[in-house]
Amino acid sequence: MLKKLFIILLVTIALIMSGCDADQGPIVISVDKTPVRSESSPKETPTPKATPTPTEKLTPEPTVKEESFKYIEDLELVEGESTLNLGEWKFGSRTVPFTISGQIYNKGIGMYIKSKDIDDEKGSVDFIWDLDKNFHRISFDLGCEENSQYDEKEKYGTYQITILADDTEIWDSSENDYKFTALDQSIDIPEGIETLTVRLTQTKGINGTLNVIMGSVKIYYYK
Length: 223
Description:
The protein has helices at residues 2-18, 153-156, and strands spanning 69-71, 77-79, 84-86, 88-91, 94-100, 103-105, 108-111, 122-130, 135-144, 158-165, 168-172, 182-188, 195-203, 212-221. With 223 residues, the chain is mainly beta.
């Protein structure tokens, strides 16, 4: 009986040994215990919203307030009415607008000296306005009436405008022929002036004299 059991044990050992290869190590069953993560779509990073650029506030340009003024023809005329035209030329019942270098004026003064009133080929006339110490500046355009059809000074002579504040000269055009213009003039008037004088001086030519205009004459108040 013991012999039989011993034989069975040898057979069992032989069978076990026949399952091993000399070139192989022991069979090891490896169990990977590392948890496997299920693949998922990558999480999208939200696109940041653009920060609105603040709208720049435009600083409004300051409103330039024009100085208060009077047109010279609206002031009291003290002297020189006989050959002075206000705002337009008056020839009897006919009126003609002032025109200098293509510019038509509905405000201003027109002046001339009659040839018969000029002695020794040169004469002057003063036009005087009352300022009553209220004004500090005068602006104007100066030129010959365009419709006068002036020509050479030998035919029509020359003209000159002088402006006086009381008795003090503040502007002078010098003596010129009738092609001369002085546009966009602005002249300061000294403080405390009672009267403003516009003095016209003309020389006469063969055909006499021509008409002179100070267009859009503004006299500005103190602020």
